[in-house]
Amino acid sequence: MRATFLYGAGDVRVEQTAEPVIQQPTDAIVRTVRACVCGSDLHPYHSMPASDRGQSMGHELIGVVEETGSAVTSVTKGDFVIAPFAFSDNTCPICRDGFQTACPHGGFYATPQTNGLQAELSRIPLADGSLVVVPDVDPATADESLLASLLTLSDVYLTGYHAAHMGRVEPGKSVTVIGDGAVGLSAVLAAKQLGAERIVLMGRHAARTDLGRELGATDVVAERGEEGVARVLDLTGGEGTHVVLEAVGHMPAYEQAYGVVRSGGVISRVGVPQYEDAPVGFGSLFGRNVTLNGGPAPVRAYLEDAIRQVLDGTIEPGRVFDRTLSLDDAAEGYRAMDAREALKVMLRP
Fold first, then answer.
1. Is 212's pLDDT higher than 90?
2. Is this prediction's pTM over 0.85?
3. Cα separation of 165 and 162, whole Å?
4. Which residues contact 150 (CB under 8 A, 6 or more apart)?
5. Number of folded domains that form the chain
């Protein structure tokens, strides 16, 4: 089968490799219907040291179950399923609290232990806890826009939703979203769904911020750094917004976040942090009673409700996909997203 591997910064290759097999009785094998490239895939794409041994890539997938281990009971061969970007048992106390990405028995894809999902076939550990069936949809005949929206539920839309949920967005609240990538735009849509009264989107790419306005942003701020902070404060009468959703993961975005958050407000981070130390002292968070929240989205906690919203037309998060390529052209997908020529790339097997 074909699968995507990264051999070092900028070196993406699609190669023939062995098909996955059941390793544990709790595993399932899923045949890909659609996969995609994530903004977080670009972090190793920028920085991975060159290696003779490629790392398989990808963590977003919708597909059809091909085979199940002897202990799997919740899915069967032929089921159309969504695979969250992290696998979990969904039964332990941590999962029951709604934080499946911290499941002590779970893990992540595209690691030395578990292959990535940008492949024709994938092994899904802990299938009963991880896979969720999409009811009454035949992927062979489904509309492309529906498949795109369902694919966002494996990560990107529900990561944006998690940011808004952890930020305690509710009717009457004002929100700033930092970042006009797919997660940031998903956070705009989620904040709108949760009733935010005002949504300020900080981004400087017009095509993306135009989509952000369609998804619910009431204001767009193109400036960055101190200028961007000053602009948001000007829009909010000097107070800032109740909630800030940080969807970038770099220190300048975090600094903007505490610059524009209202005293007593919440900063919710879902951009994978590319730094270890973040200011939390008197001049950043402590002095104004600001809460810092967020983390890897427990997609599994939100999936059933989100599937219903997609199927009944309440949300159309698949609009963040603006390019579809063959799996064979995955390297072009990485390049286009890195060059900001594409917002988010979907891959067909």
1. yes
2. yes
3. 5
4. 62, 82, 134, 137, 307, 310, 318
5. 2
